[in-house]
Amino acid sequence: MAEGIFAADIVAECRRRGFLAGAYALRRPRGATFLRRLARDLSEQRKAPGVLLRRGVALLRSEPAVLRRQTGLGAEAARGREVLHRVAGLLAGHPVRR
Q: What superkingdom heads the lineage (predicted)?
């Protein structure tokens, strides 16, 4: 299992080797992601609020391109609940197909 923004970079190789059970890129409401990230970063107080706000807006704007890149590398865009359902099916030995 791999997770994170760069996990999609290994999808093709895992598929080629027969290791890939599923590859998903989380598709979330951008505004909710922005607010969640901003709240987390503000609570950690690692940078000034203005810096965090500018960074958050930049990430908000770049999110569609990130999702396009991940799906272009072979990950399937899906909502969190759907991913959990599919992974549970894989773990139970019954892959969920669309």
A: Bacteria
